[in-house]
Write a structure and sequence with these properties.
Helix content is about 35%, strand content about 15%. By secondary structure, the chain is of the alpha/beta class. It has a single domain, classed as Alpha-Beta Barrel (TIM Barrel), CATH 3.20.20.
Length: about 250
């Protein structure tokens, strides 16, 4: 593994360590490219504050900190500034306007919530609802169609407990849409490390049949997660088993 584009910071409220520690672990582990992609701030209304994202007022410090490390470590590693973003239709255009004032090189889509988050469904909650599964597929594809996203992080984050054939039908439509848009799908190392419901074997079976390409993402929330050879090996085995090409570096 020579590149990781999925790295968080303490600003999201559920990650640990300093940015410098992430960079030094990446260098120690042999990475040539490190992209920071913390959970985006979001211009919510009604005074809502998300417990999962950095605040709007933290954006300037986030960009400045990563820019400074990029300059300091330029001889050792290539560093990029990104964000992990949900596609929330009610806020997406305003978010893009807000972020236009900052150096942000890429968005990863991580659709942790349906709707616009406030009072809606958390994707990782187990449910057998077919309508919820369909909503996830439709909202995710609508977001990808904006052309704003580098890749789809943990595309199998929606925790569906219903009929496997229904799941495969909906995820096939998602995979076909991503392939048409030439957007890679992420095999998520954090899910492997923490024994989550993803990576989902059924999803990656479908992705292999459709012919999608994959990216391996650390989804690092601690410096030690940036490079994890054991989790990486399991991610590569998922790709190998399903004959899915792994993209090692992405154009930014």
């Amino acid at each position: 593994m020579i590149a990781n584009y999925h790295t968080h910071t303490w600003r999201c409220g559920h990650a640990q360590g300093t940015e410098r520690e992430y960079v030094e672990r990446a260098i120690e582990g042999g990475l040539k490219i490190l992209g920071f992609s913390d959970h985006t701030p979001m211009p919510f209304d009604r005074g809502y504050i998300s417990p999962y994202k950095m605040a709007l007022g933290q954006m300037e410090d986030y960009v400045y900190t990563v820019q400074s490390l990029r300059s300091e470590y330029r001889a050792d590693i290539e560093i990029h500034i990104g964000l992990e973003v949900e596609y929330y239709p009610a806020y997406f255009e305003e978010l893009c306007r807000f972020l236009s004032g900052y150096e942000v090189e890429y968005f990863l889509m991580g659709q942790h919530f349906l709707g616009n988050e406030i009072g809606d469904s958390f994707s990782a909650d187990p449910s057998g609802s077919v309508s919820r599964l369909t909503r996830y597929r439709e909202q995710t594809l609508e977001g990808l169609e904006t052309g704003k996203f580098l890749y789809l992080a943990h595309p199998d984050v929606l925790f569906f407990t219903g009929d496997a054939s229904v799941y495969k039908r909906e995820m096939r439509l998602l995979c076909e849409g991503a392939k048409k848009l030439n957007i890679p799908l992420e095999i998520n190392m954090l899910g492997i490390e923490t024994n989550r419901h993803y990576p989902n074997p059924l999803f990656w079976e479908v992705a292999g049949e459709v012919g999608n390409e994959a990216v391996i993402g650390a989804d690092a929330h601690m410096p030690g997660n940036v490079v994890n050879p054991e989790a990486e090996a399991k991610a590569r085995e998922i790709a190998r088993k399903n004959r899915i090409p792994v993209i090692e570096t992405l154009p930014l």
